[in-house]
Amino acid sequence: MKGGAALSVDELFVQFGDRRVLKGVNADFEPGKVTAMLGPTGCGKTTLLRCLNRLHDNRPGFQFDGRILLDGDDIYRRSSDVRELRRRVGMLFQRPNPFPQSIGENVSLGARVHGLWARQDVAGRTEAVLRDVGLWEAVSDRLKSTPFMLSGGQQQLLCLARALAVEPDVLLLDEPTSSLDPRSTARIEELISQLKERMTVVFVTHNVQQAARCADQILFMLEGEVVEFVDKDQFFANPGDARSRAYVEGRPV
Ligand SMILES: Nc1ncnc2c1ncn2[C@@H]1O[C@H](COP(=O)(O)OP(=O)(O)OP(=O)(O)O)[C@@H](O)[C@H]1O
Ligand SMILES: [Mg+2]
Question: Where do the domains of the chain lie, and which CATH numbers do they carry?
């Protein structure tokens, strides 16, 4: 059986103050599938992604209407456990943001806090996760050092290792390779394709070729609305909306 959780967005409206940013978004993200979110700058991709693990909760002026269901449970209901939600729904941001702890602690801290790793297993599990993302060889002799001396690509892989250590059901990635070189980009793309066996994956990209390479489905947004959410092959070969074709071909939408 495939890993991952079903994530459903149901009539989601979001405003910041009087600026309407999401205008009735519906989307079903399925386990075992990778979805790429495409759309011009400012259309609401990051806002939607951040809603999926409640990262706007304390933002002044944030107004929200609609429902987001994780395996059928409303993540915004009052009794929902936000800490557990953020374990189940991991996130990788555009810029790597390691914690100011050591490289090893960046990987293990979350898993320890959530009680997932016993003390005697920490070293072995840390190594396994770092091997998983292809970073072990580069950092095995400096696990106690600061992560800030790593390259940007290595820091991003470390943040991915940190996200994977807590065994999320869903992984959200917001333009995860936009500041990376081609080699690190290829590594992240390869991981995205492998991880779908274990989790539901949603990533944002401005790189149409990257979406074509990595995604099973494409969610195309314009001005806070979903224009299309279809299989990749259909999106590229036979988009249902002229604006999708214009976007793919790099013409004004
Ligand atoms: N915290 C906030 N307060 C006020 N407005 C916001 C906030 N966050 C986002 N917005 C506005 O919401 C709109 C959508 O922003 P969002 O960051 O979701 O776009 P995006 O599709 O991710 O764009 P990009 O491709 O440039 O990253 C923008 O007009 C932005 O200014
Ligand atoms: Mg964004």
Answer: 7-248 (3.40.50.300)
- Residue matched to tokens 């400012």: 42
Question: Are 174 and 91 in contact, with CB atoms under 8 Å apart?
Answer: yes
CA distance 222 to 41: 9
Which residue's entry shows tokens 């557990």?
84
Strand partners, 68: 9
With tokens 């209901």, the residue in question is 77
pLDDT digits (tens, 9 = 90+) for 171-200: 999 999 998 889 889 999 999 999 999 999
Q: Which atom of ligand 1 is nearest to the CA of 94?
A: 27
Helices in the chain by DSSP H: which ranges? 45-51, 82-88, 103-113, 122-132, 136-139, 152-165, 182-195, 208-214, 232-237, 242-248
Test site for ligand 1: of 14, 16, 18, 95, most ligand atoms within 8 A of the Cβ: 16
